[in-house]
Amino acid sequence: MNFQLRRGFSSLYMPQGPLLNQSGTHINSLYTSGGELCRPYSQLKFYRRRLLCMKFANSLQAQKALHNFSFSGATSNVLPIIAAPRLYCNPVVCGSIFKWPNLSPSVNNGRCYSHFLKSQTFKKDGVFSNEKHGDISVFRREGNLYTKGKLPKSLAARSKKSADDSVSNSKDNETIAETQQPTSKQDDNGQGQGKLSRSKKNTKKQKSVASSVDNNTLVGGSGVSASKTKVNLRGSKKEKSPGSSASSKRASNKKSESSSEQMKANSVEMQGQAVKVTLNSLKRSNLKPLYPPSGKSVLVVESITKAKVIQGYLGDMYEVLPSYGHVRDLAARSGSVRPDEDFSMVWEVPSPAWTHLKSISVALSSAENLILASDPDCEGEAISWHIIEMLHQQDSLHDNITIARVVFHEITESSIKTALQSPREIDTNLVHAYLARRALDYLIGFNISPLLWRKLPGCQSAGRVQSVALSLICDREMEIDEFKAEEYWTVEVYFNGSLAGPPVKTVPFKSNLTHFASNKINKLSISSHIQSRDVKEKISSSNFKVMGSKSNKMRRSPPTPYITSTLQQDAANKLHFNATYTMKLAQKLYEGVQLSDDNAVGLITYMRTDGLHISDEAVREINSLIVERYGPDFVSKTGRKYFKKVKNVQEAHEAIRPTDIQRLPSMLNGVLDEDSLKLYTLIWSRAVACQMEPAIFSQIQVEIRSTDESIGLSSSCSMNDFLGYQAVFKDPETVVLKSEEKEETENGHAERFEILNSLKAGDHLILSVVELALHFTEPPPRYTEGSLVKKLEELGIGRPSTYASTLKVLKDRNYISLKGRLFHPEFRGRMVSAFLSHHFTEVTDYGFTADMETELDNVSAGLTEWKGLLKDYWARFSLYCERAANLQIRQVEKMLEKTFGNILFAAIPDKSRSCPSCSEGTLAFKASRYGAGYFIGCDQHPRCKYIAKTLYGEEEEEDAPQNSTTIEEPKLLGLHPVSNEKILLKKGPYGSYIQLGEDRKGYIPKRASTAQLKDAELITLGDAIELLRYPITLGKHPKDGQPVVLKLSKVGFTIRHGRNIASVPKNVTPADVAMEKALDLLSGKDVRRSGRPKGKGKAPETMEVL
To answer: What are the boundaries of the region Disordered (predicted)?
Structure first.
């Protein structure tokens, strides 16, 4: 059992011996209100008449606990206070102070009874029943059964005597909740009010902020406010019980004195006093329009840029202040989300946030309205909620202040003023979704990451979405590893066509082989050079005629307007921007820029959206521009409306578009930097195109047969009849988006279309040329940023607004790398992904993660209870953690060795895996205990100390391949001119290398490292042939008969003799290095010796591998 101390009782003195309940169950731990664990009971001394304060969810739990607790080994009296949160129960019940009877351990086994319980009955089914309260569900722990408990006569009389001495008649529950040292007595009904003694102020700076959230109410802590505060967003009203005592009033007056001291602290403990915020997400409140202004208002936004722009729109009656993002966040340490305490959370307030909150508090002192205008999404709703919680904690919300939430999707004067005319309350469903998402991410990350540190040294973290994204990249890499390339040939046949003159013009047109020997041709039908030559000879000796043609019209619809994910994809594909950079530029365009006329304005609508619709007013403006710029034929006749089935209707915002479509990209030259202008142009062109008519094409296809009809060919071509939406992309305004790739000229395309259109059935054709082309099947492509974002969106994993940060984390952790525009998994990332796939299947399961995302969307829609979702997931996930914690590192190594054995040992020449040092052991995969990566070593360690090179360790040999962890498919560079064997470019765990010939059993192909090349992907056949020439044995050294070898390293050519290495000067070509020159270099001053430096003990043997 875990119980929590009320605020102020950080010191607890208990009787010696364990604390038990009636069934003999130990109470495992006792927490202070800040979540700090008290000292073990065995270490606590017992003092007479000390205080024990326990916090329960309601008074009935308090009664049950009091009824069933017993102290073994107690030697004197203990006075407890049973205090429940005032927001959940009857203040009369909660206001009761239960006094322990003067019992000794010998009396009734130390069992404590309260006179308040003498007539209560506890049922076995966990329901408490009496005439006053009816049937009320009560708390049950560990299946304990509670029976009827009556106060013994002797104790009842003693309790009655204590009640007769009671002199208080107040029922002020707020004062009781503040009580630090109660000294009063009670009457028979437990409704007495005793004297209160306030303890000294706690001026120690706390680092944690704890807050709990109920399903129907958001409960945050108030470490400063002492009296009960109930806040409705239409106005703040402090309610006090009618019978408030003088001491309660004095306590209330002291709050303002302590608030300034609390603001100076970096963080504050918030679990003590509860503050209830009434928030309604199902109906719009009766808030009055806030524009035109009727009094001074404080409007809070997230950034200083946005604040400056909006301040210019609203004037002096509004003070616009920035919060600079979140004012508090989950503490980045263990225990910040507590499943055992109903998923309470520990919040941390960064130091700068206190300064920002103080500015808001000062402004609110003379304001009538607090307007929260954070971003219109789940995260923005949470920021507003955090601000309210913190302002309540500082007691900065005076009586009758109106608190309102407004949202806008673009930063323009009209949009801001319209939003102020439609204020609403904070949406609790969105806040719950935020809390659920944060709790899930925290629980997964902070439970898996420590396991990774211990089981996979060097691996740093895992996360709910990042682990699935990593799994996608690693699974694709595994497909590439297992892919086997197949050879195939294509045949292209060119015929001469004639264009009517004068003069008559002959133009060749291409056709593709579709049938041969009366059989349909597919991609792999022609699989060898011999087959392709036979096909070519047959075609060259045949005559061909036109069998027929068909033509049709095609309509190509315009693209949909941008949402977050499609903007990231297009920016990656067309502009080569990564997702993080794209969102950074979009944020700047949204928040506002200073135009040439000195006016600041937001250029695009909110960029974190998954909604496709565009407002009717914006559509009218776009249509007007289309008519003006392209003509009335280009405007959509039906009026295009785009809809997407959005699970989270609260976040179904408008699509991304310019705030003013008449603001052409050319108008922003000199205002925006080059990249910002490109992104704005991309958004502008897409917004215009989506409201235009489809492009119309004429397509023609001609079927060609040999005279014996054994060979079939097909030729097709299309021609644009009406540009439609494509007119936008030919507009000079979008010139920055033009592709640099060469395209077929329109003239050549038109000629080919004209020739095919002129052909008729039965026309004989003149063969021009037959071309053969060799191809190899290709593995699935690696992900680019655009394609990965698209895949995540298709699978329903994560939110588009989080994709950029997810990919950044993976790159920062060195789990993946971006080479060119392709994601390559580092071996460290592959190890993490394999570990999670084996031991945390739900974390990397695409379907499960997508379902979890759906559940989170259901929370934001009010369809799923957020704590229930967390409880269900935690029940399963905690079992995974327990099993993984019991794994031995060697078990993890064996799993990784089995998974990646073909990769890890691919570079060992004979792949026998026998230890080359002791010949008895077997080479095995081992993780470094110092976080350096992994290495391949002998399993007879420590008797045999042989190791291969570590992945991240220092290279012994100058010509050793560069460290690399990616394993690519073999790339055929061509055939060797002498041996006619294939020359392949491969990648192993230690870098790229060239291989001559295929892998065959019992045959070791010749290999050469490409470490000296800057980019192995650009290697040519000539380069590969040159690399395969080395090493060259020049002869034997005259002194010892050992070979003298000319080798190629990553820094140039070297001469090797035993362990002696001499570099070949850069001005000396390899052809000039003969035996005589080599001996001169080996006898020079610059000779060095290879191998590990001498140290204590014998250095382990090493093996050089490619």
So the answer is: 150-270, 1084-1106
